[in-house]
UniProtKB/TrEMBL annotation:
<dbReference type="InterPro" id="IPR029056">
    <property type="entry name" value="Ribokinase-like"/>
</dbReference>
<feature type="binding site">
    <location>
        <position position="233"/>
    </location>
    <ligand>
        <name>K(+)</name>
    </ligand>
</feature>
<comment type="function">
    <text>Catalyzes the phosphorylation of ribose at O-5 in a reaction requiring ATP and magnesium. The resulting D-ribose-5-phosphate can then be used either for sythesis of nucleotides, histidine, and tryptophan, or as a component of the pentose phosphate pathway.</text>
</comment>
<feature type="binding site">
    <location>
        <begin position="238"/>
        <end position="239"/>
    </location>
    <ligand>
        <name>ATP</name>
    </ligand>
</feature>
<feature type="active site" description="Proton acceptor">
    <location>
        <position position="239"/>
    </location>
</feature>
<feature type="binding site">
    <location>
        <position position="263"/>
    </location>
    <ligand>
        <name>ATP</name>
    </ligand>
</feature>
<dbReference type="GO" id="GO:0019303">
    <property type="term" value="P:D-ribose catabolic process"/>
</dbReference>
<keyword id="KW-0547">Nucleotide-binding</keyword>
<keyword id="KW-0808">Transferase</keyword>
<feature type="binding site">
    <location>
        <position position="235"/>
    </location>
    <ligand>
        <name>K(+)</name>
    </ligand>
</feature>
<feature type="binding site">
    <location>
        <position position="274"/>
    </location>
    <ligand>
        <name>K(+)</name>
    </ligand>
</feature>
<dbReference type="InterPro" id="IPR002139">
    <property type="entry name" value="Ribo/fructo_kinase"/>
</dbReference>
<comment type="similarity">
    <text>Belongs to the carbohydrate kinase PfkB family. Ribokinase subfamily.</text>
</comment>
<dbReference type="GO" id="GO:0004747">
    <property type="term" value="F:ribokinase activity"/>
</dbReference>
<feature type="binding site">
    <location>
        <position position="239"/>
    </location>
    <ligand>
        <name>substrate</name>
    </ligand>
</feature>
<comment type="subunit">
    <text>Homodimer.</text>
</comment>
<keyword id="KW-0963">Cytoplasm</keyword>
């Protein structure tokens, strides 16, 4: 059983060919609301593969909150510890798609109210988990506290350090697996990737986009190649990688196989639109692994 402690957002996606200047109004092409937030996305990725997943987080007392909680339940995720905050709205990400790139404004809302009290409430659940997954879209103090709770209980933590600016290197003592992409790795360790990897053998796994992922096994650098595929939308690739890595590790796969499994799962996710849209089932990953 895996517990995910993290963010739950509604992504408000606007696709436009004209970008407004200050004070200007333009007409966009398309608008969609899609469930997101790194916490929820990683929970969905692991659940699609068949993992038993509990989510710890918060939404507001509004329509988006209801919709997002229902979405998690539909994916088979336990939501008993998804709190409904009275004081603030559900977290949102306002995503503007423009000229094959994006501009994003995140309003954390209820995600900012995932506090130590919520961790205490879920403590019994956390202590029963085989693995806890976290990211950095909830308050830093909460991550700090949850890491200490997990350390005391001997529960391994997989931490996806995004956004990287919220990471503290002292946390490494309490982290079993850290999964930055290359930019995040440099931002966190202020050194060459090789040097950081050698400092944390079998614990620091750096994702390399289409190229796959790498880590250091104590003797040599290990590169696990990505699976070449036709990309539709890479949103959610990192989240799929993390959810799948957690699932594979708790299924008893050695690190090398687990990273290969996560690469394959993430390669399937980039073939479809949206963060959660392309997250694969176990059968889909196994079929691609067999080639
Ligand atoms: N174009 C691609 N083709 C195949 N696999 C991909 C591609 N892009 C990403 N992946 C897979 O997704 C994983 C995570 O990608 P990446 O290193 O870009 O992380 P990220 O920056 O956190 O992703 P994102 O923020 O886009 O979700 C990679 O390790 C790889 O397995
Ligand atoms: K996708």
């Amino acid at each position: 059983m895996i517990t995910v402690i993290g963010s739950i957002n509604m992504d408000l996606v606007v696709d436009t060919t004209i970008f407004p200047k200050q004070g200007e109004t333009v007409l966009g092409n398309r608008f969609e609301t899609v469930p997101g937030g790194k916490g929820a996305n990683q929970a969905v990725a692991a659940a699609r593969l068949g993992g038993e997943i509990h989510m710890v987080g918060a939404v507001g007392q509004d329509g988006f909150g209801e919709e997002l909680t229902a979405n998690l339940s539909t994916e088979g995720i336990h939501t008993r510890f998804v709190a409904t905050a009275q004081e603030t709205a559900t977290g949102i990400a306002n995503i503007l798609l423009y000229e094959n790139d994006n501009r994003i404004i995140v309003v954390p809302g209820a995600n900012g109210l995932v506090t130590e009290a919520e961790i205490d409430e879920a403590r019994e659940l956390i202590e029963r988990s085989e693995l806890v997954i976290m990211q950095l879209e909830i308050p830093q103090e909460t991550v700090d506290y949850a890491l200490r709770v997990c350390k005391e209980a001997g529960i391994p933590v997989l931490l996806n350090p995004a956004p990287a600016k919220n990471f503290k290197e002292e946390w490494m003592n309490n982290i079993a697996y850290l999964t930055p992409n290359e930019t995040e790795c440099e931002e966190i360790f202020h050194s060459e990737i090789e040097e950081a990897l050698e400092k944390y053998p079998n614990r620091l796994i750096v994702t390399l986009g289409a190229a796959g992922a790498r880590y250091y096994n104590g003797k040599e650098h290990v590169f696990i190649e990505g699976f070449k595929t036709k990309v539709v939308d890479t949103t959610g690739a990192g989240d799929t990688f993390n959810g799948a890595l957690a699932y594979a590790i708790t299924s008893g796969q050695p690190l090398k196989e687990a990273v290969r499994f996560a690469n394959i799962a993430a390669s399937l996710s980039v073939e479809k639109f949206g963060a959660q849209g392309g997250m694969p089932t176990l059968q889909m990953v196994e079929a691609r692994l067999k080639g």
